[in-house]
Write a structure and sequence with these properties.
Elements: H1 2-13, H2 15-37, H3 40-49, H4 59-82, H5 88-93, H6 96-114, H7 121-149, H8 152-170, H9 176-180, H10 182-205, H11 209-229, H12 242-246, H13 257-263, H14 266-284, H15 288-308, H16 311-335, H17 339-357, H18 361-382, H19 389-408, H20 413-424, H21 442-458, H22 461-479, H23 483-499, E1 503-508, E2 511-513, H24 524-535
Antiparallel strand pairs: 1-2
Helix pairs in contact: 2-6, 2-7, 4-6, 4-7, 6-7, 8-10, 8-11, 10-11, 10-14, 11-14, 11-15, 14-15, 14-16, 15-16, 15-17, 16-17, 16-18, 17-19, 18-19, 18-20, 19-20, 19-21, 20-22, 21-22, 21-23, 22-24
């Protein structure tokens, strides 16, 4: 295995010379085969019947025309395409089909010059009646191949394939000793990160949404592929080599080199930073669907991380979601537009669902605290940009769905109480940050009541404990208002539940689902009686 791989590496590192000798060997073998297959007497009989076939003096000129046509077309296509796609020439200097075809026509032309005197009839026959027609027939398919390969989608696909091959090679048992050598491990790192940087270059150079989306998907899919096989990769691959430290994504992370090395996360850190840059760019250009794609892909990575049970990567995914939340809050406050926050909150909630299903209790507690903190930040921004107030309700709605899932999975009651306590702080998000007094956000309160109705519908000992927590908190909030006003707030809440349906009457970034709808309105009377008895 090691010998085969070393041969493969040598061939790839010396593609230009290797392809030359390979094609020269093929043409030499073809020449020998034709000589053995057709004796000299055969050609003497053919030339006696058709003497014109003996004249091959035109062959070198025709071959030079073919060479000029192919190389000229190749130079024009790549030069034009390089204006839009950076480092395209680097890619095609290593393109094996191009190298083989280029050497094929050049060596065939040289072969024609060498046999122009027609000393060996078999060689003349091979060149003029086999190699020349073959080259003419292959010219158009080759030009078509080059045109197709210069498409950004094809380049992205090839870069993804190359990086995927490197990841697969890292896991081969026969190469473990080879990778343990520092120089060899760094060669793998260079190959992998170079592909990622080329993907990033294409992303920032191409403005078409289709190709930008393909770049994001390819980057995130490589992360998932890497995470899946990471435990099979030798430790030497995760050293912070000089090449990694000089990479633009790591030059400001010098204080974290040891942590990245110990956690074996340099590749994930690299890709997450690229994903964060992509998300920030989508926010700047108001590309809501592509910004949502970044959140969706991060959820898929989070799911894979939970499957392999890697707590370090779970922390990294949480940090990336938090970073994207910060970007989205700044974008929403500057534009007074909550759409990106709306969709990102949904994706964040989906990732926390994966944590819940995977029974990551500590990570869930931390993530719920993050949601509570970002709700506070959104509330502060909404004092200036009123449209952002709705996001506090959205984050509360995500927490409600998570708490319902936690209850259905029968987590410990103390853990559920802790999570519900954090949930109940969402109706006063500015508490502790600014001196605002008791503030009731009616939309948040409506979602809290919705969770209370869910617990009342469950009708178990644990659900009664949890519903009591919510009712006591709502009672505390209502009590801060005059009795007439608190009764009005309560009546308005109950009325809203009676008229709300599962479908919203407009299409939003999440479709037509209504986050304020509750299917447990049969418990409204019970809830109302409990609240009024406390207010009496």
């Amino acid at each position: 295995m090691k010998s085969i791989y070393l041969l493969k590496v040598f061939f790839q590192e010396h593609r230009f010379i290797s392809s030359f000798f390979s094609m020269a060997f093929v043409i030499y073998i073809l020449d020998l085969v034709v000589q053995l297959a057709f004796p000299t007497t055969f050609f003497q009989e053919v030339y006696s019947l058709a003497p014109i076939l003996k004249d091959i003096s035109f062959a070198p000129e025709v071959w030079l025309g073919v060479v000029g046509l192919v190389l000229g077309t190749l130079i024009i296509i790549i030069t034009i395409a390089s204006q839009m796609i950076p480092r395209l020439i680097d890619l095609y200097m290593n393109d094996m089909p191009s190298l083989f075809f280029g050497w094929f026509i050049i060596l065939s032309a040289l072969h024609a010059i060498l046999i122009v005197e027609n000393i060996r009839p078999a060689s003349s026959f091979l060149n003029v009646y086999i190699l020349l027609p073959m080259s003419l027939l292959l010219v158009f398919p080759y030009v078509y191949y080059i045109l197709r390969q210069t498409k950004p989608s094809a380049i992205i696909k090839n870069l993804y394939k190359n990086a995927g091959t490197v990841i697969k090679d890292l896991t081969k048992p026969g190469l473990k000793d080879f990778i343990e050598v520092k120089r060899n491990a760094e060669a793998f790192q260079i190959s992998l990160l170079t592909s990622m940087n080329q993907l990033d270059n294409i992303f920032h150079s191409v403005n078409f949404k289709e190709f930008q989306a393909q770049t994001v998907r390819s980057t995130c899919e490589l992360v998932r592929d890497f995470i899946k096989v990471k435990k099979s990769i030798p430790d030497s691959f995760f050293e912070m080599s000089e090449f990694i430290q000089q990479d633009t994504s790591f030059q400001t992370l010098s204080g974290q080199y040891k942590e990245i090395r110990d956690n074996k996360t340099f590749f994930e850190v690299k890709c997450f930073r690229l994903l964060g840059d992509a998300y920030f760019k989508f926010l700047l250009i108001n590309s809501f669907d592509l910004a949502s794609l970044c959140g969706s892909e991060l959820v898929k990575i989070g799911k894979k991380v939970c499957e392999v049970d890697d707590n370090n990567l779970i922390s990294l995914v949480l940090v990336r979601f938090n970073t994207m939340m910060r970007f989205a809050i700044k974008d929403g406050s500057s534009k007074n537009d909550p759409r990106n926050l709306y969709t990102l909150a949904y994706h964040y909630g989906k990732f926390i669902e994966q944590l819940i299903v995977s029974n990551k209790v500590d990570a869930v507690k931390q993530a719920v605290w993050y949601l509570q903190w970002y709700s506070s930040q959104v509330y502060l921004q909404s004092q200036v940009q009123k449209n952002l107030m709705f996001i506090s309700a959205v984050l509360t709605g995500e927490m409600k769905n998570l708490l319902m899932l936690v209850y259905n999975l029968e987590w410990e009651i103390d853990t559920q109480k802790t999570l519900v306590s954090g949930f109940l702080k969402m109706d006063n998000p500015a508490s502790g940050n600014v001196n605002t007094g008791e503030i009731i956000l009616t939309q948040v309160l409506q979602i809290q009541v919705s969770l209370c109705l869910f617990y009342l519908e469950a009708d178990t000992e644990n659900s009664h404990h949890l519903s009591s927590l919510i009712i006591e908190d709502i009672h505390k909030d209502l009590k801060s208002y005059p009795k007439v006003q608190s009764e009005k707030i309560l009546n308005d809440l109950i009325f809203q539940f009676k008229i709300q349906g599962p479908m919203f009457w407009e299409d939003t970034e999440r479709g037509t689902s209504n986050i304020f709808y509750s299917p447990h309105t049969s418990q409204l009377a019970t809830f109302e009686d409990k609240i009024k008895s406390l207010l009496a």
